Amino acid sequence: MMYVAAVFLPLLGSIAAGLFGRFIGDRGAQVVTTLLLGVSAALAVPIFTSVALEGHSVIVPVLHWIRSGSLDVSWALKFDTLTAVMMIVVTWVSFMVHVYSVGYMAHDRSIPRFMSYLSLFTFAMLMLVTSDNLVQLFFGWEGVGVASYLLIGFWYERPSACAAAIKAFVVNRVGDFGFALGIFGIFFLFDSVSFDTIFAAAPAKANTIVHFFGIDWNAITIVALLLFVGAMGKSAQIGLHTWLPDAMEGPTPVSALIHAATMVTAGVFMVARMSPLFELSNTALMVVTLVGAATAFFAATIGCVQNDIKRIIAYSTCSQLGYMFFGIGVSAYPAAIFHLFTHAFFKALLFLGAGSVIHAMSDEQDIRRMGGIWRHVKVTWALMWIGSLALAGIPFFAGYYSKDSILEAAFASHTLVGHFAFAMGIAAAFLTAFYSWRLLILVFHGKPRADERVMAHIHESPAIMIVPLMVLAAGAVFAGWLGRDMFVGHEEAGFWRSSIEVLPSHPAMEGMHHVPEWVSMAPLVVAGSGIALAYLMYVFAPSLPGWLAGSMRRVHLFLLNKWYFDELYDWLFVRPAFRLGRGLWQGGDGALIDGVGPDGVAAATRVIAQRVARLQSGYLYHYAFAMLIGVAAFISWYVFNAR
Amino acid sequence: MILDLVPLMPELLVAAAALALLMLGVFRKADTSREATVLAGLAMGGALAVLVGVEGARQTAFGGMFILDGFAGFSKALILVASAMTVSMSLDYLKRENIARFEYPVLVLFATLGMMMMVSANDFLSLYLGLEMQSLSLYVLAAYHRDSARATEAGLKYFVLGALASGMLLYGASLIYGFAGTTSFDSLAKVLGGSGHPNLGVVAGLVFVMAGLAFKVSAVPFHMWTPDVYEGAPTPVTAFFAVAPKIAALSLLTRVLIGPFGELAHQWQQVVVFISLASMAVGSFAAIGQTNIKRLMAYSSIGHVGFALVGLAAGSDLGVQGVLIYVAIYLFMNVGAFGVILAMRQKGRAVEGIADLAGLAKTNPSMAFVMAVLMFSMAGIPPLAGFWGKFYVFMAAVKADLWTLAIVGMLTSVVSAFYYLRIVKVMYFDDAVEALDHPTNPPIRLVMAVSALVVLLFTFLPGPLLIGAKAAAQSLFAAG
Amino acid sequence: MFSALIFYMFAALAVASGVMVISARNPVHSVLFLILCFFNAAGLFLLLGAEFLAMVLVVVYVGAVAVLFLFVVMMLDINVVELREGFLQYLPTGAVVGIVLLVELMVMFGGWAFAPDVEALIQAPAPAAEQITNTEALGRLLYTTYAYLFQASGLLLLVAMVGTILLTLRRREGVRKQVIARQLERTAAGSVEIRKVPTGGGI
User: Fold this and answer.
1) Positive or negative, the Cα torsion across A384, A388, A391, A397?
2) What is the 3-state secondary structure (H, E, C) of A448-497?
3) CA distance C200 to A207
4) Among A99, A220, B24, C36, whose CB has the most other CB atoms within 10 angstroms?
5) Do the Cβ atoms of B242 and B297 come closer than 8 Å?
6) Mean pLDDT for chain B overall
7) What HEC string does C10-25 produce?
8) Measured between beta carbons, which residues in chain C are less than 8 angstroms from residue A621?
9) Which residue in A110, A107, A26, A33 sits closest to A359, CA to CA?
10) Interface test with C, best of B128, B191, B203 (most C CBs within 10 A)
C-alpha cells in the first residue's frame, strides 16, 4: 500500500490541480500538490530503509495491462535498491521544487496548470523508476517526455518557448525511436519484456548472432546499443544534446527538477537497470564510455564561454551526465548512480539558486549584466557557493566523492577507452571548476554591471524559496559523505545486491580502491587550478578573457556556437525536413491528396453526376438503345470470354 | 386438383378480391374509390393471414409450375405488406388530386397478384405470365393520371421499354428451351446440372432473361425508364413502384439464378457483379444533381438495387439472406420516405422539390425527424436499419471473395450519403420559404411512424427478420 | 423434297416481308406486309402439321389484330418524313448493335448442341399426332396441365381490358349514345306522330 501510494499520490495531485484547479484555486492547487508530494517523499524514506538498507526487494502488482499472444504486460511496481535510490532523489527534489515553485511562480497566471504538470511529471518519473518491465518503463519514459514538453512550453505565448519545447520533443523522438527498437529487439530475442525474465535469460543469449544487412551482429550488442540511443536522447549525450540548453526556456524550477535532477538522468538509470544486458556486450560498454567521455569534455568546453546563467548550468548538467555514462561504461554502475544521486542535489541547488538570482535581478539571465550582488543576496550567494564547491568536486562536498570514484573507476578499468575517459574526465573537471567560478565571480563579485533600477530592486528571495535551497544544500554537503560507504564503499555489495550486475571480468569497482595516489589527487588538483584560473581571468586580470577571445577568435566562436551542432543539424535535418514538409504539404497534400482526394473526388463526383444525368435524355429510343447495347455487350463478353 | 389449390389460396383471395371490387365499382353508380381502397387493403391483409396459414414446407402445384416455399412465402409477405401500406396511403392523395377512381385499388390488387405469381413461379411460362400481369397493371398505373402529359408519357415509355424487356426475356427463355427442351425450373436444374461446360446458347439465353428481369428491378443499364417514370407517375403510384415490384423482381431474379441456373453461377455472377457495380455507381452519382425528390428516390432505388444485387452476386445462402434482409429494410425505409413525400403539400397543393422541404425541422419537427432517420438509414449510418442491410450483403460478398464489390459498394454508399444528408441539411439548416402543411391523413402518419420505428429499433430486435430471412434463403438452397 | 421447297418458300417470304414491314415508306404498306408475313407463318405451321395454330394465326392475327392496326394507321396522321429522319440518325448505332448481335447469335448457333436428355423431355406432354387431332391435343393440355397458365392468361387479358377502359373511356356530356334497350322499347305510338299537312301551308 505504501509503495502504491508513494507512486500514485503525485498523479492524484496532478489530477486535482489540473482538472479542478479552477475550483480549488491557486492556493488550493499549490497546497494539494505539494502536500501529496510531501507525503510521497516521506513515504520514500521508509521504502528506502526497507528496500535498500534492509534488503526487502518487492514487486507490487497493480493490474494486467496487455495480453496478446506471448506478450504479457502488467502494471507492477518493482522496488529494489536502484529504484529506492531513484525514489529518494525524485520525490525529495520534486518536493523541494514544488515548495520552491510556490514562491517562484507566485505571480504567474496559471499556477494550477504548472503545479499539475510538475506533479504529473513526478508521477511519470516514479512510474519510470518503479517499472518492472520495459513497456511500463517506456510508458514512464514517454510520460516524462510529455511533461517535459508541456513544461518547457509552459509560457506558450513565447515563440522561443514553443520552439524549444518542440525541439526537445523531436530530438527525444530520435532517441525514443532507438529505445522502442531496442524494446522490440528484446521482445524478439527473449519473448518477454519483463526485467526478471530478461535478466534470467540474458547470459544464455550472450552469443546469439543475428544476420542483418549482410553482417553478423551480436544480438545483445545491437539491443544494448539501441537502448543506449534512447538513453542518449533522454540524457542529452553528445549528438542528441541540443535540446537541453534550449529547454532552459521553461521556468527555472522546471530546469532544476527535470533538466538537471531527474528526467535527464533517466537514461543513466535505464542503462543501469539494464546492466545485466550491457555487461554482456563489451562493444556496447565501449560505446557508452566513449560517448560519455566525449560529452563530459565537450559540454564543459561550451560551458566555459556561455553567458546565460541557466545555459551554463545546463551544459554543466550535460557534462556531468557524461561522467555518469562513462562511469557506467567502465562497469562502475554504483559510482555512476552515486554521482547521479549527489548531482541531483547540488545541480538542483544550483538551478534553484540561479532562479533565486534571476528572481532578484528582475528576470535578468545574462551574467555579463550582473556582478557585485553578493551583499544583497547573501543567503543565495552562500548556497551557490556550496553548489559550486560540490560541482567542482572540492573535498568533503558531495561531488567530490562521487566524481572521484567515477574517475578512479575509469582509471582502474585498465582499458584503453577507460583511460581515454579518465583523461577526458580530468580535463572536464578542470573546465568545470573554471566555468563554475567564472559564473560565481561574474554573478556575485566584482563591480555591478546592471543598471541602477535593477540594482535598486535586488532583494533576497522569500523564505519559501530559500528553505528548499537549504535542504538541497544540506544534501549537497552531506550526501556524498553519508552515501560513500553504501554506494561505492565496502558496504557496496550488500547495498546494491541483485539490482545491479557486474561481471567479474569488469573489475573497475574493485580496482578503484587500489589506484595510485596521484589518480585520487588529480581531480582535486585540476579543480583547484580551474578555480585559480577563473580568479586570474576574472578578478586579477579582467582584460585577459577579452584578449583570449580576440586572439583565439575561431576557437572562441566555435565554443560560443556550441561546436556548431545546431547549425549542422539545421543544415542536415531541419531545413531538408522543412523543404520536404513544405513540398509534401503544397505538392503532396495540397495538390495531390486534396486535389485528387477530397476536393478532387468532390469535383469529380459533380462532373460524373452531370454526365450521368445528361445520359438521361428523356428520349425513348435512347433508353431502348441503352438496353440493347447492354445486352449486346454482355453477350459479347461471353462470346469472347467463355471460350 | 383441389389439393393443388391450397398453396394458391393467398393468390386466389387476391384475385377474387380484385374481381369483386371490379364488380362493385362497375355496378355501383356512386364513387366507390374509398370503399374499394379500404377493401383492397383488407384483402391484402387477409391474403397475408392466409399465407401465414398455408406457408410451411415446400409445396408445388399444377405439375410443378407453381411453388410455395419459405423463400416465396417470405417475399410474398413483404410484397403484401408493401402493397397494403402504399395503397392505404394513396387514397387521400388521389382524392385531393381529383383522380380517385375505383380502378386504382383494383389494378394494385392485380399487380400484387402478378408479383405473387412471379415469386411463386417455378416455370418460365408461369414466370412470364406473372411478370406480364404485374407489368400490365403497372403500365396502366403509371399512366393512371391520364390528363397529365407527364404521367401519360411515363406510362408510354414504361410500356414500350417494358415490352422490349419482355421480348428479351421471352427470347432468352426460348433459347434456353431450345437447348434443354423444358421450361420447368426443376427439370432445367437437372439438365444444366449434368451438362458440365455450359453451351454458349444457354448462357446467351440466360443473359437475355437476366436483361429482362434487370429491367424490372431497374438495374443499370436497364434502368433508364426509372427516373422518368418515377417523376411522371402520380406519387402514390411511384411509392408503389418503388417498393413492391422491386421486391418481387429481385426475388424472381434470385430464384431463377439460384434455382435452375445454380450450376451456372460462375457465368451469371459476372453479369450480376457488373450490373450491381454499375447500379451502385449510377444510383449514387446521378442522384446528386437532382432537384425533384421523386427523381432522387428513383436514383436512390437504383442504387439500393445495386446494393441488394451485391448479396445475389455472392450466390451463397448468406448472400440470399442478405438480399432478403436488404429488401425488407428497404421496404420500410422507402415506404416511410414516400409517406413524407406524399405529405408534402403547400397550401393544399402537392409539391415535390427537394427545396420545398426547407425548414421542415422548425415547421414540423416530427416529420422532419422521421425523414432524417430514414435518410440516415438509407445512407447506411449505424446503428439504423439501413446499415445492417448493407452490412449483411457486404459480409456475404466478402465471404465470397468479391472484394471489388464490397469496396465499391462502400465507396458509393459514401457518395450516396452526400445526397441523403443534403435532404437532412435542407430540412434542418435551410430557412423555409413556405411551410409545408401538416399531414392530416391518419394512414400516412401511421405508415411514417411505423417505418421510422422499424428503422430505429431494428438494431435492438433484429431476431425475427434475421431468422425469417435465413430460413427463406435456406429453403431456396435446400430445394436446388 | 417438295415440302422442303415449300418450307424455304414460306420462310424466305416471311423474312422478306418482315424486312419490308420496317422498311416500307408507307405505313399502310407496312401493315399489309405484316399481314403477308402472318400468312407465311401460318403456312409454316401447316407444314409442321399444326393446322389449328395456322388457322388461329390467320383468324386472330390477320383477321383481328392486323386489321385493327390498319385502321389505326389509317386514322393516325403519321408523318413519314419525320420518322425517316430519326431512323437515319440512329441507323448507324442500331446497325452496329444489330450486326454485333446477329454475328454473335450465328456464332452461338454454330456451336449449338442440345442437352443430352432433351428428346425425352420434349416428347412427354404431347401424344402422337396420329392418335388425336392437334386441336384436341392443345385443348387437353390447356385445360389440364396448363390450367393455371390458362386462367392466368385470362386474368391478364382482363387487366389489359380494365387498363384500356381506364385510360381511354371518358364520359362526356352531350354525347349521343346508342342504347339498344331503349331502341327496342320504343313503339310507333311513342315516337311517331301522324299529322295532316295541308298542301302549301307548312307546319
Assistant:
1) negative
2) CCCCHHHHHHCCCCCHHHHHHHHHHHHHHHHHHHHHHHHHCCCCHHHHHH
3) 149
4) A220
5) yes
6) 89
7) HHHHHHHHHHHHHHCC
8) 86, 90
9) A107
10) B191
First to last CA, chain A: 79
Q: Tell me how far CA of residue A603 lies from CA of A594, A600, B409, in angstroms.
A: 11, 5, 20
| Contacts across the A-C interface (CB distance below 8 Å) | 21
* Residues with Cβ within 8 Å of residue A552, at least 6 apart in sequence: none
Lowest pLDDT segment from B109-113, B179-183, C121-125: C121-125
pTM here is 0.61
Task: Give the dihedral sign, CA B299/B304/B307/B309.
Answer: negative
Supply the angle between the helices B103-119 and B70-96 in degrees, to the nearest 10: 160
CA dihedral (A100, A102, A105, A106) positive or negative? negative
- Residue in B160, B211, B227 closest to A630 by CB: B211
The answer to whether A178 and A227 are in contact (CB under 8 A) is: yes
Grid cell, residue A513, equals: 580502491
For chain C, how many helices (H) and strands (E)?
A: 10, 0
Interchain contact, C97 vs A632, CB within 8 Å: yes
Residue of C113, C146, C156 with shortest CB distance to B132: C156
What gap in Å lies between CA A520 and CA A408, rounded to an integer? 7
CB distance from A64 to chain B under 8 Å? no
Report whether pLDDT(A216) > 50: yes
Residue B82 in contact with residue B251, Cβ under 8 Å?
Answer: no
Parts of chain C with a pLDDT under 50: none
d(CA A594, CA A365): 47
What is the predicted pLDDT for the residue at C83?
65
Residue closest to A326 by CA, chosen among A438, A427, A253: A427
Q: pLDDT grade, residue A544 (50/70/90)?
A: confident
Rounded mean pLDDT of A186-210? 84
* Beta bridge partners of residue B340, listed in sequence order: none
User: Residues for chain B: how many in total?
Assistant: 480
ipTM: 0.90
Nearest CA in chain C to B191: C115
Q: Report chain B residues whose CB lies below 8 A from the CB of C172.
A: none
Q: What is the predicted pLDDT for the residue at B480? A: 47
Asked if residue A131 lies in contact with residue A74, where contact means CB atoms within 8 angstroms, the answer is: no
Please report, for residues B169, B207, B222, B378, B477, the alpha-carbon distance to residue B275 in angstroms, rounded to integers and kept in the order given: 17, 12, 9, 20, 23
Could you tell me how far CA A231 lies from the centroid of its own chain?
8
Number of A/B CB contacts below 8 angstroms equals 78
CB A195 within 8 A of CB A133: yes
Q: Looking at residues A363-391, what average pLDDT do you find? A: 85
Q: Beta strand pairing status for A58-68 and A71-79?
A: antiparallel
Chain mean position to CA C8: 23
Q: Which three cell numbers stand for residue B150?
A: 407527364
Could you tell me which of A251, A228, A254 has the C-alpha nearest to residue A240? A228
| Pairwise CA distance, residues A240 & A321, whole Å | 13
For residue B321, the model assigns a pLDDT of 93
What is the percent of chain B with per-residue pLDDT over 70, rounded to a whole number? 98
Taken in order A40, A46, A49, A50, is the CA torsion positive or negative? negative
Q: What does the DSSP assignment read for B268-318?
A: HHHHHHHHHHHHHHHHHHGGGG--BHHHHHHHHHHHHHHHHHHHHHH-SHH
The answer to whether A642 faces chain B, any CB pair under 8 Å, is yes
CB pair distance less than 8 Å for A627 and B228: no
- State the Cα–Cα distance between residues A363 and A360, nearest whole angstrom: 7
Which residues on neighbouring strands pair with residue B110, listed in sequence order?
none
**Residue B372 cell numbers, joined:** 432524417
